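Sample entry (77 residues):
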Amino acid sequence: MPILSCGVSMLQAKSYIRKKIHVSGNEYYYIHIPSKLAHDSQFPFRDGDELRIAVDVSRNRMIIEKINGKKKQKNKK
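Predicted structure, serialized as tokens:
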């Protein structure tokens, strides 16, 4: 599934953005990441990774980056 774009290896899959409205009235947007992409050995993200999201509106691109290996602590019950 890896492809080359401008000499850089990239993983690619088709996906969708979904809007959900919480019972509190807050709106949330979700991006579905297909399991075929997420389970690829080159996929750089893991459960709990802290991410930075940037939107380049002039090029219609969303950039998602891991923030220096930080992970959000999970609440233990």
